[in-house]
Amino acid sequence: MGSQERKASIELPIKVVLTDLGTTYFIKNNKKLRKFKLADNVEEYGILLEHFTPSSLQRMMLIDYVSKIELSESEFAKIRQEVMDISKLITYSMMYRQYDAYIFQRVLTSDVIKNWNRKNPANIIDEKTRINDTYLINANLEKEKDIDEIKRSILAPMYSYINRNSNLLPEEKNIQLLLSEKFLTTLRAFTWFIIAKFKGADGYDTLIKDIRTSLAEYMEKAKIAEYVALNVMELSANAENNNLKREAKTIFKGAVDMNAVLFDPNVRRQVLESLKRKGELVSISWKLGSRGSSIGTQGKLQITIYNKESEYQKIKESFDEKKHADLKKRSLQDFYKELPEGESNTDLGLYYLSYLSEACEKVNVKFESFVSQVSGSDLTVVTMAINL
């Protein structure tokens, strides 16, 4: 199976707001929770992670312990890769969860289960069926060879497709191989228990074909994770630069070139220090739909960027204009070259929304974006809502 060099840990202070399930677990295990005041001034309980492994955070998301993740910074240029890594991690985690829920439903409505339920009315298998976790783990260990073989048979067509794709670099192929494996390894233990139990039964081949088809669909959906990460980073950078320019006007009374604020290290440092003292940071919030929420919202990922803006209406008009820009005939590379004169890379996040919207439309993912303002404040809110 594929391998990829992974970042061992991420060093960024993130606030992790817990679901009721997560809160219960932490309290039962005597883990002290912290009370946070988030960017929207709402107070929540959770944990602060300053140094963490991507896998540990992902595990918490996959078992529905995480409600929201928030990051607040004054300077995003230095943590660009980390911000994009976190964004992709969250998007992929939501997709794994959705795929798991989808496959579980397909298994329960498959012919193999219908046949079993018809013959065993006293021991039917459905959503209410509960099996002891320890029993499941041991049963799957006994069937480990069968399960590995089933996984290989499901992945074989996907492996072949990825390896034949001449548009992918070797490293990109490796990432795609890992991603396809991850979708299967994050399926719940009960799903694998059922698949292994009914291997070779009537309807089994149809079920495996169904899992293969849906895996291909979710692999296509997964492509939007890169677009989401780019949007998050560029919109945050845009907000950061607006902050720098606004603060520079206050500090230097217009006696400094605005380009110097962005590119002169000494001027930039002075402005950043002033913003930090005032606590005027840009905040990114990722809100995850819970497994226990109403139908249609479990797969909703809402990403919000909070920033203090003195010219809200101007920001809103610019946002609305650029997110509807007709970019369909230009690749991102072409777009970079054709960026209108006078518009720096700080405007890219607004234009990227068109590419993200189009990418979502292609894979039947609902996407919305809008700008609003927190009532009674100068806090401007940029929201991207993605229903996976």
Describe this structure in words.
- The structure is a single chain.
- The protein has 15 helices and 8 strands.
- The chain is of the alpha+beta class.
- α13 crosses α15.
- The longest helix is centred in the N-terminal third of the chain and has 29 residues, at 80-108.
- The radius of gyration is 24 Å and the shape is elongated.
- The two termini are 27 Å apart.
- Mean pLDDT is 87; it is low at 1-5 and 341-346.
Mean pLDDT metric: 87
Query: Main beta sheet: strand number and arrangement?
Result: 8 strands, antiparallel
Q: How many angstroms does the end-to-end distance come to?
A: 27 Å
Number of helices: 15
Question: How many strands appear in the DSSP assignment?
Answer: 8
Measured by DSSP, the beta-strand proportion falls in: 5-15%
Structural class: alpha+beta
Low-confidence stretches: 1-5, 341-346
Q: Portion of residues in helices?
A: 40-55%
What is the N-to-C order of secondary-structure elements (H for helix, E for strand)? EHEEHEHHHHHHHHHHEEHHHEE
Strand order of the largest sheet: 2-3-1-4-5-6-8-7
Please tell me how large the radius of gyration is.
24 Å
Using the alpha-carbon principal axes, give the shape. elongated
